[in-house]
Amino acid sequence: MEKTLKIIKELKEKRVLKDFSIGGGIAALYYIEPLLTYDLDIFFIPIEDSIDVLAPIYQYLIEKGFKAKKEHVLIEGVPVQFIPAYNELVKEAVQYSNEVKYGRIKTKILGLEYLIAVMLQTYRPKDRERLVKVFEEAKIDRTLLKKILKKYGLYDKYVQFKEMYFGAK
Amino acid sequence: MDFMINMFNLRKCILAQNKAFEKIIREKEQRRKELSELSFKEKIHILVELQKMAQGVAKSDEAADRIVWQI
């Protein structure tokens, strides 16, 4: 994993991508109990807008000898999925990510409140499952969360979610 | 989703009916909190163990798509 994160960090250092942050199941796992997931999701901001923003990343990694399989690149034994920051919320989430350490490697991970907002926005069954755990186990900055949710029109969905699963606001 | 709502309601019934269950659930919650406070690295090691366990019970086509991390 350290080697994987080092390679991902290299992508930013070599300006293959502008910025990145760990999202998805691994970001959730950082804040709650370990949960089963199979890929490392990397949200990224491309160096420049183009039709195929993934191409430079894949090219760089394949030249380094890593293999692409379906939507992943297998980097040092870990299947990594690169996801371009697809809207303003995700772009802001990447921008305000937390710097964390994994062993000796410094990396970036979505802030908890942004992660919640992204999960509320995507709202797949696995997002709802993770959201329940996050609200039960993580220490959330409610003021920041409310601010983000209001900004991106997700506050009503949040209230609905809380009522459905916890019977309260 | 229905499953989770049902589980939530079931849990509420159990809590109301039986103090012993309440204690067990509280302890499980405590355990989950403790797990949530492990380091990032420790959690990733647990994740890999979970992947190995899940691989053992997955259908063959599922198993082919799901890679146990080699870290």
Descriptive account of the structure:
- The complex is a heterodimer of chains A (169) and B (71).
- Chain A folds into 2 domains: 2-110, Beta Polymerase, domain 2 (2-Layer Sandwich), CATH 3.30.460; 114-166, no CATH class.
- Helix content of chain A is 49%, strand content 22%.
- Chain A has helices at residues 2-13, 24-31, 55-63, 88-95, 112-122, 125-137, 142-151, 155-166; strands at residues 17-23, 40-46, 67-69, 72-75, 78-84, 98-102, 105-109.
- In chain A, the strands form 2 sheets. In chain A, strands 1-2-5-4-3 form a 5-stranded mixed beta sheet, with helices on both faces.
- In chain A, β3 and β4 form a beta hairpin.
- In chain A, α4 packs antiparallel against α5 (112-122), α5 runs antiparallel to α6 (125-137) and α5 (112-122) packs across α7.
- Chain A starts with a helix and ends with a helix.
- The relative contact order of chain A is 0.15.
- Helices cover 82% and strands 0% of the residues of chain B.
Name the features.
heterodimer; A: 169 residues; alpha+beta; Beta Polymerase, domain 2; 2 domains; 5-stranded mixed beta sheet; two-stranded antiparallel ribbon; 8 helices; 22% strand; B: 71 residues; mainly alpha; flat
Concise description?
The complex is a heterodimer of chains A (169) and B (71). Helix content of chain A is 49%, strand content 22%. Chain A has 8 helices and 7 strands.
What is the third-level CATH name, the topology of the largest domain in chain A?
A: Beta Polymerase, domain 2
Largest interface: A-B, 35 and 25 residues
Low-confidence stretches of chain B are none
**What proportion of the residues of chain B form beta strands (DSSP E)?**
under 5%
- Major sheet of chain B: size, sense and barrel closure? none
Total beta-strand segments of chain A: 7
User: Secondary-structure element sequence of chain B?
Assistant: HHHH
| Spans of at least 5 consecutive residues with low confidence of chain A | none
Integer count of domains of chain B? 2
| String of helices and strands of chain A | HEHEHEEEHEEHHHH
Radius of gyration of chain A: 16 Å
Oligomer: heterodimer
* Helix percentage range of chain A: 40-55%
What structural class do the secondary elements of chain A suggest?
alpha+beta
Q: What percentage of residues of chain B falls in helices of 4 or more residues?
A: over 70%
> How many separate helices of chain B?
4
User: Mean pLDDT of chain A, rounded to whole units?
Assistant: 93
Overall morphology of chain B: flat
- Structural class of the helix and strand makeup of chain B? mainly alpha
